[in-house]
Design brief:
mainly alpha; globular; two-stranded antiparallel ribbon; 2 domains; about 40% helix; 6 strands
Amino acid sequence: MWRIRDWDNIYESSETRKIRRLSYVLVPNKHDGKGFRRIAKRQDAAEVYAAWILMLQVASKSPNRGVLADNDGELTEADLADKTGFPEQIFANALKVLSDKSIGWIEDVLPGDHPGTPGHAPVSSGLTVPYRTVGYSTISGGGPVAGFCGTWDSEAWQKAMPLCARAHAALFPNTTRLKQIDREIIGKAALVAVLIYSESWFTAALDGIDSPEIKKPVAVWKSRLSKQPESEGRTLQSLLDIMVIPKRQPVTKPPIKEPDDAKPE
């Protein structure tokens, strides 16, 4: 699955993080970087850069911004062509160019799960993290499947919610309302705990976090979480990136049943 490298640092701002659905994307105006100059020297520079801008725009509308995916899963070159109206081949070429180490503007966060990309290998049994998965289930080879926790009442999210509440109380004891970015990192980490690592990994990072001696509890908590070793070559950040917090569905009240008409005597 393709992700724009350093999306949050380069293409987001304090203002864009407040917006749920972007209608624009921030693009640097720097033209002297090594990656930009290497692209400019190519004969296909115009096509590669056009595809890059289009992919930035598509990624800005993703449910998980910065990732080339939608609610159905990761986007292929054909999907990008369908979404933008530009030829499929320019995306296929741009993905190879931009993911090369000499450029590094885009990265495959799940090597081995995306056929035709650098580092591809057959998916083995055991722990896998496909983006398309909805809910919580297991695969035939054993091990949990993670990805979309698609519904509010899914088993995974029901297990994650108490962890979220515990983290909320420990990290933000003086507020009942969290910033969207804080709510998401807590929820995603809770899903990683339930689906991949363990709940004890999540709760251990909270031990003593509410102590007055800890001046920046959120930063300390994140640092503790990041000490978890890679899971089958996948870093914690790449696992967090594929987690999507389910939206709570509005409660629909059942229709009021009208009493039966009184039967005549």
